């Protein structure tokens, strides 16, 4: 489990729930082809989702040594900005977790 989270690998039904979030919400931009010459089921919806994903998938360093629960809310300045999908205590990185964050709060270092 720790190595999976350190590597940023997702688990279906923990980090990704099919039909509820798009591949762009998981920051899979680099592996999704939006080539209009390809006939892709849902391609039009994917193109719309790619324009401004509402959510981004990130690895967080979490303050303190307490590991949050799966599904714990992520707050910034008292405002909920996401959810931790896979937390752990990493021997290499401290307390970390995979999280889905609002796009405006997902830049590295924020």
Describe the 3D structure.
By secondary structure, the chain is of the alpha+beta class. A 4-stranded antiparallel β-sheet has the order 1-4-3-2. Strand 2 and strand 3 form a beta hairpin. The longest helix is centred in the middle third of the chain and has 9 residues. The model has no long low-confidence stretch (mean pLDDT 88).
Which tags fit this structure?
14% helix, 2 helices, alpha+beta, four-stranded antiparallel β-sheet, 4 strands, 110 residues, elongated
List the helices and strands and how they pair.
Layout: H1 2-7, H2 43-51, E1 55-61, E2 73-76, E3 79-90, E4 94-102
Antiparallel strand pairs: 1-4, 2-3, 3-4
Distance between the termini: 25 Å
**Which regions contain 5 or more consecutive residues with pLDDT less than 50?**
none
Let me know the average pLDDT.
88
Beta percentage is 25-35%
Helices and strands, in order, run as HHEEEE
Number of helices: 2
> Helical residue percent?
10-25%
Count the E strands. Answer: 4
């Amino acid at each position: 489990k720790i190595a999976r989270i350190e590597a940023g690998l997702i688990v279906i039904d923990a980090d990704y729930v099919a039909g509820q979030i798009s591949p762009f919400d998981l920051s899979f931009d680099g592996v999704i082809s939006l080539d209009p010459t390809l006939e892709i089921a849902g391609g039009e919806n994917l193109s719309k989702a790619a324009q401004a994903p509402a959510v981004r998938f990130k690895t967080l360093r979490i303050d303190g040594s307490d590991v949050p629960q799966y599904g714990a809310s992520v707050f910034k300045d008292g405002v909920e900005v996401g959810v931790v999908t896979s937390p752990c205590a990493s021997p290499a990185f401290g307390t970390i977790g995979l999280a889905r964050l609002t796009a405006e709060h997902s830049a590295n270092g924020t």
